[in-house]
Amino acid sequence: VRLAESGGGLVEPGGSLRLSCAASGFAFSSSAMAWLRQAPGKGLEWLSTIYTNGNTAYAASVKGRSIISRDNTNNMLYLQLNSLKTEDTAMYYCQRVGAARGQGTQVTVSS
User: 42-72 burial, b if ≥16 CB within 10 A, otherwise e?
Assistant: First the structure.
């Protein structure tokens, strides 16, 4: 199982980012996938899940300003983050639900 996140970076408050996660080594299209994050000094926070039927769920902290999506043809998972706030600064991880997560991609929101 391999999960490789990308797309993080430095963005100003109010900006947007699209995170990507390349998956391999397992049946991606048959797996529920999730995004999580961990801010400095804080615990791991679940953000969003997309199920195999396309249904989605979001944490209150990102609901309404994020969109999770998947491309089963290319084994890719995405998270569009909009209206970013300084408190969104964290390491972002993708995860096959119930299994290990990737190495993460850093998102820093700062002016």
Answer: eeeebbbbbeeeeeeebeeebeeebbbebee
- For residue 100, the model assigns a pLDDT of 87
CA distances to 2, 22, 27, 31, 109 from 81, in Å? 23, 18, 26, 22, 11
Residue 101 Cα to chain centre, angstroms: 10
Residue 77: burial class (beta carbons within 10 Å; 0-12, 13-18, 19+): buried
Adjacent-strand bridge partners of 106:
91
Mean pLDDT for 23-41 is 97
d(CA 70, CA 72): 6
Average pLDDT over residues 22-28: 96
Distance of CA 13 to the CA centre of its chain: 18
Q: Using CA of residue 92, residue 81, residue 31, residue 73, what is the dihedral sign?
A: negative
Report the alpha-carbon distance of residue 46 to residue 58 in Å, rounded: 8
The C-alpha atoms of residue 56 and residue 50 are separated, in whole angstroms, by 4
